[in-house]
Amino acid sequence: MTPPPPITFNMPITAALCYGGDQDYYSFAVQIGQNVTLDLPVRPADYYLTLYNPAGQYMTGIFPGSLLHYGDKVTLNATGRWTVAVWMPNWAPTTAPYQLLLGVNTACSGLDPYEPNNEQFNPRQILTRTVTLRAMLCETGDSDWYSFLVSIGDHLKINRRSLVPNMRLNAAGPNGGFFEVTDNIDMIVTQAGNFVLGIDPPQNNTTENLPYVIDVQIDAPPTPTPLPNNWSCTDYASSDIPHCIEDLTTLGSVVTAPISGTVTHVGFKDITFNHNALYDVGFGLRAPDGAVVDLFTFNDYGFYTWCGGGNCKLSLDDGAIAGLAPPQFPNNGGSFRPSCNSFAPFNGKASNGVWTLLVNDTGLSDPTNSDVLDTTGDLYGWGLEICVDNGNPVTATPPPSATSTPEPQPVNGTPVPTVAPLTPTPTAAPTVCTLTTDAYEPNAQRCLDEVHYRLLHPNSRG
Ligand SMILES: [Ca+2]
Ligand SMILES: [Ca+2]
Ligand SMILES: [Ca+2]
Ligand SMILES: [Ca+2]
User: Fold this and answer.
1) Which CATH number fits domain 13-110+416-456: 2.60.120.380, 3.40.50.720, 3.90.180.10, 1.10.15.40?
2) How far is the CA of 91 from the centre of ligand 1 (A)?
3) Strand 185-188 and strand 73-75: pairing?
4) 377 C-alpha vs ligand 4 centroid, how far in Å?
């Protein structure tokens, strides 16, 4: 079979369905994501338009009752040579020409390699962790959605480098929380999953081709430093549990450390508890010598209510990932830095003796309101990690590795879009199917012959 003749966007072509069974096929080159307007600006009747993808599969069409109408746009989802057919069932041949026009927005069509990406729940997945999104909202209603795979502790930075005024950025974290991004984002990810970013046009937008440039940088947390050679560390579990955590009280729960030495590090392991009002709760530590340090409150990290089913379980350690906040339901056993003060004041103290976890409840339940849970809880378990100096020579501390802050670079090769006026209008003069015939017919003579036959035998059908 002869391949369909190629046509180009925004160049109207004139031809005719000029013999019995005539169906005109044309091919055209497509970049994925191009929005193509299908139109027959001139048509003897409402001819059918049928669109096939590069694999030859039917994609869509214009026909009686179709959702698509003349002049509508279709977003094409594959790069390659597409085919469009102009035809009509049970059609009486005519020399009257039609005009076919496949229009694209010349300013940006084919320049946004991320299309189609119009839906929040069907975004373009980006696997590169440092990327500059340099694309545009082509049509007035175009939205562009991207998603990035993130892990707990990742440092996520989003820089709104260049946006058209009133262009709107929205995001949804892996926990599903949806929010408008009104400023640059610089955050430590608290939950693994997909981080979704969407660019929407200004409200009531009437302008096409709105460019944007957004830098996304995702850095994995630094690798934990190995334990120094001169530290010997042991976990001691508390045995005087459980305890009730009452309103407006400070509960003490103890572990007794038998080991003698000089403390180089202490931290809480797996504080396991329940509480209906985490905004009331704080933790501290008392050393055997009576020194007390306030270490942590949930309020320092944000607004937390309860454990979300199951027990709250978390560790507190100066060596946890900097900036990492507990998840909304802090029951995944994660390790976090103390929020108020570090454990450092305990370093250098004698290790042996009674260490006390202090659990602080700072809020009163309302006994007159039965709709609200009481704001108390229970402590079920915890441990204290104590590291002491074992006398080994201190290993040379490697110099801290340089923080990874590469300048985001374009990686998609997208040219910087320039704003330009929209599509030319069809201007070519229609030609008829007789002497110049239908230039797109593979067998032009057949078309001529058929036309002449029709002229001689006007009542016949072929
Ligand atoms: Ca034809
Ligand atoms: Ca776009
Ligand atoms: Ca889009
Ligand atoms: Ca309380």
Assistant:
1) 2.60.120.380
2) 12
3) unpaired
4) 8
